[in-house]
Amino acid sequence: MATEYERKRLENIRRNDEMMAALKVHAKASLLSAATAAKRSRRDDSKSFKKKQKTKPETPTVIRKSLRTRGLNPDSGGLPDGFSDNPKRTRIQNTPSPQKQSPRLLAPLPIDSAYEGEGSYTQLLDTLLCIEKKSCRGSLIKEEIGSVKKSNRNLSKKGKKSNRSYVKEEFDNPVKLEKIESEDGFDQDLLSLEPQNVARVVPGRIFAVKFLPCENVKMIAAGDKFGNVGFWNLDCENEEDDDGIYLFTPHSAPVSSIVFQQNSFSRVISSSYDGLIRLMDVEKLVFDLVYSTDEAIFSLSQRPSDEQCLYFGEGDGMFNIWDLRAGKSNFHWDLHERRINSIDFNPQNPHVMATSSTDGTAYLWDLRSMGANKPKTLATVNHSKAVHSAYFSPSGLSLATTSYDNYIGILSGANFEDTCMIYHNNITNRWISTFRGVWGWDDSYIYVANLSKKIDLINPKLKRTVMELHDPLMKAIPCRIHCHPFTVGTLAGSTAGGQVYVWTAR
């Protein structure tokens, strides 16, 4: 039974409905809602129609971006940078840097298709084949090292006029070393940089630079970040038809290493981050495909007196030995936790190998004891950051490591049991290649670049930098350095802009 309150509530609802019906409120609300919906629908249709009818402007808006943010090298038409004084060595400056990488080709690449330079490359091929016939090549053996040291001592006694080496003093004479440290820095009369010995060999940042190991020909090969391999014959005399620079593109990613075949200079091997190893065969006129992998190849080397095997590091710490004759892998191990940055062999004991890695270590190995399982190390150098190189001295008695922790490590002793650290600023940015300290023609000095566009000479006995190489012509940091294996006093420094500076003794 409904209560009194419920009856009143129902009565009020009935009376309100009658009042709303009399005023026709519901009908007007429905009409207003329909009109609003129709107006909204027409507005939406209009917007949709305008979007469909919108045309592209004749002159699109251009957003200005610098060449650096687009991944390109600066234009060569800007302010003079010191390389235009010698037109013979500057023709490649007009070669534009590639804006995109070519796809990886898993097949032999004809030299004609790989050539990107101006003019003809015939003279390069003729030079390499001529070297092959004359057999002017050689290898650094004990007698050669002894003759280099003897020549250094004799030249230093004769004076500056007949001096063909920058080494002014002997290793065991610290008094004269102190004398070199003067306010004027390094004696410019001992080693010089001439304008004709400066050239842009490749368009991009150089990762690898190597002298042709030949006594009678002064030639350099350089590999850059775009996959180019450039050759520069400094002895080229034909200025009208040939500037001595030849550019090839056998890879689609940075070139990590370049190796000249020990007994056949007409065969040049290159490795790349694209996972390919190619062999430039001058006689067959092809960049042959030697090896391919889905991993990047960060380092490549050959053991002395063993041209049939390649030793390289791929991926995160994988070390591979590849038989060129059989076309297969002999052994492979995980030697490091991260990528292997360098591989080097002891010149006096080729069975001993050194590897450096981004995992902060450098190891010594004996190839004779490396079986199917992970081999044991002979010695270890520990750094707090990535180690970018580990190279043996010419005598094979010392090992120099270069790390991102701002130290040059020296490993020495009868069993490489002695370790010392020499401070050197090795911090580089992403736009230039990491520093790698290399030995000269004996065990007296280690050459490494610095951020002041100079080359530091570090004496491992004094454990510090004792000299500097600097010249107004050197306008960029010479990140990667290589010393000519047979010409004492000749070394090359390469830069992030593709330039190569060749210092020679007077």
Automatic annotation (TrEMBL):
A biological process from GO: DNA damage response
UniProt keyword annotations, A-Z: DNA damage, DNA-binding, Repeat, WD repeat
SUPFAM superfamilies: WD40 repeat-like
Top-level taxon: Eukaryota
Region (Disordered) location: 33-106
Molecular function per GO: DNA binding
Biased composition (Polar residues): 92-102
WD repeat segments: 333-369
One family name in Pfam for this protein: WD40
PANTHER family: WD REPEAT-CONTAINING PROTEIN 76 (PTHR14773:SF0)
Role description: Specifically binds 5-hydroxymethylcytosine (5hmC), suggesting that it acts as a specific reader of 5hmC.
Family: Belongs to the WD repeat DDB2/WDR76 family.
Protein name: WD repeat-containing protein 76
Organism of origin: Cardamine amara subsp. amara
